[in-house]
Amino acid sequence: MLSLDDDEDLIAERLLGSVEPEPRRRVNLRPLLTGLLVLVLGGGLGAGAYLASTMDTRDLIALLDIGDRPRLSLEMPGRNNRGDSTPPVVSGAGPLLTPPGAPGENDTPALVPPQTGHTEGEGHESPPQPAAPVETPPPPVIAPPVPSGPVATTSPPVVPAAPVAATQPLPAAGYQAPSYASLPDPATKAQPLPPAPIEELLRRSAYGPLPVVSRGGQTAFQAYARPFEMKPGKIRMAVVVAGLGLDKDATEAAIDKLPPEVTLAFSPYAGALDKWVKRARDAGHEVMVMVPAESEGFPSRDPGPWGLLVGNPAEENITRLEQVLARVPGAFGALAPGGAFVRSPKLAPVLAALRERGLAFAGEGAKLDVDLPRAEVIATIDHDLFRDAIESRLNAAADIARKNGRGLLVVTPRPVAFDRLLGWFGRMGEQGLVLAPASAVVTLNGKS
């Protein structure tokens, strides 16, 4: 209690002491720190993801090696940037670029015989001495023994050979690449073949006219094949041009420029095939149909909606085959490309369907034991579009044909291939060969 007698200062002090001070507010920094942490981590992760998605591998390696000494340097052989003949030393590893012919890090450094009889200062440099590594010493190299006896002192220093760049073959001076228009015309005009197809060898289907065996036993192979008279003492060699009908210029060149003994195989995906088949037979060419099938590079190389696939059921492949055969009813046989399908058991039902329709077959799988006219393709001559490569394949195919007694080649319609073929046809007699249609090289149960 305060009384009037109390001092004013004492009264003020007591009043102030009775008043409790207001507590200080505490600032909560946890949300602020959490937000900053999220921003830092998010920004770091975002920057790392951006760098990982945009930087090249070489940029990343350069970023990791930014604190190291630069290792990419090109020095003159036997000379470094200090002016002496000591090879440059790079920390941790040998030089990244080694001059051609110079000894590597693990090679024996005794490619040049030691020079004796001369000292430094007489106009000769001493042989390069390997410098000691700065950080990690390499394993010791045992030098070969110095030969006893006199050593020639007049041999010139070995100069590293200049690198030879790998180049593709260049055409000869004045060489003009062949074109379809530059191909020569045949010397004589061929006699046309009989019109095809024949009505009694057809049967209507949902896909169009399909070949069948007539009531008298005649087949499309017998009716549509080009007649051929064998010359004694010669080996029959057939050439089939595959994939025609898709390119007008290529198809016209195959029909008009090549000899009538050359067989023409048309793609089922081409248009106006009835007109192309008629024009080909009018020029004396017998006709085959290309059967699209799964080949090397599948599925990147898609054979199309009518392609025969290893993964398809046999019924599906037969349906697709009928759709293909209905496109070229005047063909005497079918040609299949090499690849997975013709090497698989799925080819056997297809060959059986071709036999029932009286057709022949040509392809890599022709060795299967199916009773139908068939011929094995021994080579495709234009895998490499170089004149020398095509000539080499033609000569190799001639050797195989002489060994087997016959042969069948496949070529795609390209000017350089046609040009090489026309020149080779004139030399076939020298190799003991005669050009024959594909129907003349097929066999039935191993017999012609």
Automatic annotation (TrEMBL):
Keywords for this protein: Membrane, Transmembrane, Transmembrane helix
GO biological process terms, semicolon-separated: carbohydrate metabolic process
Pfam families found in the cross-reference section: Polysacc_deac_2
Database matches in SUPFAM superfamilies: Glycoside hydrolase/deacetylase (SSF88713)
Transmembrane segments: 32-52
Region (Disordered): 71-156
Superkingdom: Bacteria
Compositional bias of kind Pro residues: 127-148
Name of this protein: Divergent polysaccharide deacetylase family protein
Source species: Magnetospirillum aberrantis SpK
